[in-house]
What we know:
The chain has two domains: 104 residues, no CATH class; 47 residues, no CATH class. By secondary structure, the chain is of the alpha+beta class. It is built from seven helices and six strands; from the N terminus they run H-H-H-H-H-H-H-E-E-E-E-E-E. Helix 3 crosses helix 5.
Amino acid sequence: MREIDERFGILGPIGSDLEDARSWVHSKHTQLQMVRERIYQIAAGDEDCNDADFLRIDPALRLAIGKGDEAGAGQSRLSRLENEVLGTEPGLAALEKALMRSNDTLMRRKKKQRLIVDVDSTEDPAHGKQENVAFNGHFGKNCFHPIFAFTSDENCLGAKLRQGNVH
């Protein structure tokens, strides 16, 4: 993943797209390293960050994020990154730019002459009082109602998390 990421410049620019308000004196990990760590974990199947404390010492992950012999960021730090940095408007915009860079590269490599886009929504059930959760009469439950755009080759072009009661 790291080789593809670097070859096509997918995540590299995200470091300059995000403002880092942390004190460098107390920072062991760059934002780019943490974004890579979290995205690579998701790609490997750790979608909820529960195993981040264990995975941070995994040699392959440390190599992929550029930490060498040092451990990566732990679960609490990655959760703060997701909520306080990536979950903001600038953070979401930076992630969207990374997704566009990835898709642009893919489209160029496949030499597509025509692009068919499938836009569809789905339910994402939610429990508790999470922000933007609402009752959706069609699905008959409290949920989010995200919308996705995919190519005919099933490559995700974009996604937007929406309130549960959006049509």
